[in-house]
Amino acid sequence: MGWVPERGRLAAGLLVNLAASICIVFLNKWLYVRMGFPNLTLTLVHFAITWLGLYVCQALSIFAPKSLRPRQVLLLALSFCGFVVFTNLSLQNNTIGTYQLAKAMTTPVIVLIQSLAYGKTFPTRIKLTLIPITLGVFLNSYYDVKFNFLGLIFASLGVLVTSLYQVWVGAKQHELQVNSMQLLYYQAPMSCGMLLCVVPFFEPVFGEGGIFGPWTISAVFMVLLSGIIAFMVNLSIYWIIGNTSPVTYNMFGHFKFCITLMGGYLLFKDPLSINQGLGIACTLFGILAYTHFKLSEQEVSKSKLVQRP
């Protein structure tokens, strides 16, 4: 019966990530739509709580921080700041369905960046899976009755900066020999400082709509809860990947993808046309095919390693 506790911990970790990932999308959307909470300020709160949570984790010896120079993570902190801000602005200005599908474009853009900037090659079947992903996102966005140009701009910038960030994270982890939590431990406070300097120029600090405005107790509670959940999302991602594999996490992500889409249409009454439904199905098919082929590649690589004398 030794396998029971291990499977129980894994199931608990997956459930925590599932609940936190879905809650953060709906809670942030609620804060933007129903309470008018400023976007950059909410992102600043998330960064501050994430850094505080990581500080507590390292104090409890959950991970050991590694000494890094600020200039080594400066560009990464800037892109980290940018991708969170732009994805939150995309969530604020788009329906949850369009926001969620736009995030799926990260995969094709990462493949494009790695091919053009790093000379990495991908099998033809991997490249072909990017066609239904891109086509599905296009169909959903084109037929979204709440489509707006500003939302499209923020979604596009979010995809571009997120893709750059993910590529750079992999490169920096290899270059500096650190794991994700060690890197985030330095990124979060640096990004927090950057936003702290920028927020007063774009959002009010005092008065109506400002961080020190006349917010109700329930609004303050929801903002703090949003920050805690954002930290839980980051922490559970690292735990799941560390105890399973990135492919397992991505496969689990498809389940979250579907639930988030359905929740957006049910909770926020986002209209869904037949063409949008086809776009969602097309994108989901492309994502599943991409994951299947990547899993097959990993199995082939493992078998080659085993066969070596």
Automatic annotation (TrEMBL):
Spans through the membrane: 12-32, 44-64, 73-91, 149-171, 183-202, 214-240, 247-268
UniProt xrefs under InterPro entries: Sugar_P_trans_dom, TPT_transporter
Main localization, broad class: membrane
Listed GO CC annotations: membrane
Keywords: Membrane, Transmembrane, Transmembrane helix
Domain of life: Eukaryota
Subcellular location field: Membrane
Residue ranges of every copy of the Sugar phosphate transporter domain listed in the record: 19-290
Membrane protein topology class: Multi-pass membrane protein
Protein name: Solute carrier family 35 member E3
